[in-house]
Design goal:
By secondary structure, the chain is mostly helical. It has helices at about 1-25, 30-55, 60-90, 100-125, 130-150. The chain has five helices and no strands. It is flat and about 55 Å long.
Length: about 150
């Protein structure tokens, strides 16, 4: 019985250390990542509600939506890798240019804005009236994002 307790304690310690190290590495990226996760869940839920109300629920689309959201994390990791490469390059060149998580944060904020636009589109499609000022802001942001993506 004592050995199981020690294994559990060791497992908890390793997991806590790994999570703590990861969060310390993320530092100023942790809060935006939590916001991203929340808006991803809300977007998925409002999208599912929209499909359900229109009798268009499709498990294939639902799974693809989940996979797309998981792929967002790959994009964030790419941003973090770019930050690491830039920081390393600056150190090698003896330049004191702190990059931090700049690219990673830009990627996360871009994804958050994308998710918020999708949430508002889902709410509008469900029939939730959006305030005019919000409609204008969303239209403006969406136009700018569409121009950037083209």
């Amino acid at each position: 019985m004592r050995k199981v307790h020690n294994k559990e304690t060791l497992l908890h310690t390793v997991m806590a250390t790994a999570l703590g190290t990861f969060l310390a590495y993320l530092s100023n990226l942790a809060v935006p990542m939590v916001v991203l996760i929340v808006v991803m869940v809300v977007d998925y839920a409002t999208g599912m509600l929209n499909a359900w109300l229109k009798n268009q629920l499709d498990s294939r689309k639902g799974i693809l939506g989940i996979l797309k959201k998981i792929a967002y994390f790959a994009l964030v990791i790419v941003g973090m890798v770019v930050d690491y490469i830039l920081s390393s390059a600056f150190v090698k060149m003896n330049l004191n240019l702190p990059v931090g998580n700049c690219i990673g944060i830009i990627v996360v904020v871009w994804l958050i804005i994308n998710e918020i636009i999708s949430i508002l589109e889902n709410l509008s499609a469900i029939g939730i009236p959006l305030p005019k000022f919000l409609q204008h802001i969303v239209a403006h942001i969406k136009d700018n994002f569409d121009n950037i993506n083209d």
